[in-house]
Amino acid sequence: MRVLFVGDIVGRPGRRAVASLVPRIVRERQVDFVIANGENAAGGKGITATAVDEIIGAGVDVITMGNHVWDNREVFSFIDDEPRLIRPANYPGDCPGQGSHVYTAGGGVRVGIINLSGRVFMAPLDDPFRMADLLVEDLSHRCDIIIVDFHAEATSEKQAMGWYLDGRVHAVLGTHTHVQTSDERILPQGTAYITDVGMTGPADSVLGMERGQALARFLTQRPQRLEVAKGRSQLDAVLLSFDDRTWKAESIERLRFWTEA
Ligand SMILES: [Fe+2]
Ligand SMILES: [Fe+2]
Asked: Which domains are assigned to the chain?
């Protein structure tokens, strides 16, 4: 069983990179199931129904989100009716959408996906560790494989979550920083881990956004409009392989592809 996880898709360039590259990766690497983080898919902030359709149309099975989930208000009109989209499970109170879901991959393999947000240098959501306990307990009875997208800023919090869930889920994959880390590994109890999968979007940018505008923010310390950058894109991802009998993680491989300018 092979699962591809694609890092934060930024704007139209990111969606185009997914459309042009994911079908080829799926074919060439015999991928069975594709997950992508889409929190920046619409203009760099949030997601729209059109962006969901475009990403799913490219062969992605599930879209996870993050702190930008509510940035495009259109999301409120469809998130409750869109099982292929999940947002961080630890938003407090009565929150639209869902934070985890069980999907059926080819061959009837039941894949549970959990989306959680960190709290260090981020909004103070509910405790992601205790929420993970509740969701893992529930999903472990009705899934073959459980994959967690831990959308967080601090490396320490992400590593801590990896250790916390080692042996209880099959993969803990970090998103949000838009910079791919080179620490992919299988933890001792069999959980695949990476601190950050990276970004899918404009390569010559500051985290996907126009570099001149981003720089102006730092230089002037005044509000500055940020738009999705142009030019060639990168697609950052990890390819996970699971044993078809025990479902233990066998390997995690970092991937980066480029589009034409
Ligand atoms: Fe992001
Ligand atoms: Fe984020």
From this structure: 2-258 (3.60.21.10)
